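Quarterly update from the structural biology core.
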Amino acid sequence: DLLLADPGAAALEEVAVAFVREGARRSGEGDKAANAAAQQVALAIYARLAEQGDAGERTKLTLARLRENTGDRDGAAALYAEILAGDKVSTTALRGLARIAEERGALAEATAFWRRLGEAVRPGDLPWYESHYEQARLAEKRGDSDAACTILDGLRPAMPGLTDQELRGRLTALYDRTCG
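Predicted structure, tokenized:
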């Protein structure tokens, strides 16, 4: 049994990644149950990697995302928070905490995580635009279209630098709903 043997961290990670990829492929074919099962297996493997100690940030982030995907939002939030407790700001951890806060209905907390992400990245980079979009979207979700419009109006001068067409479309649609 592979999980009982000690094949080494790199080999275990390869197996976990293979499960995630196969699950995603099957999900794309409509087999959501296979994806859920693959996520659970990958979660077990990454949990074993973390138990071996000396789990790096990448392993912790992957484990947190798998926990989030499999419904263990408390476990995911704890790992994301642990990663952020270090000196380095992790945009992945901030995104995860923002998603979890929103799912819990804590929109102000989710907005704070998105704001922190926007402050941690270089203005004009894709995560900066994403941060502003999410802050405006959450303001609209709270029923505060004026706040959403203010965020989006402040972003408009920077819009020519946004090359991601999908995000540009979402920003434009949100602007039309809240400011138009």
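The chain has nine helices and no strands.
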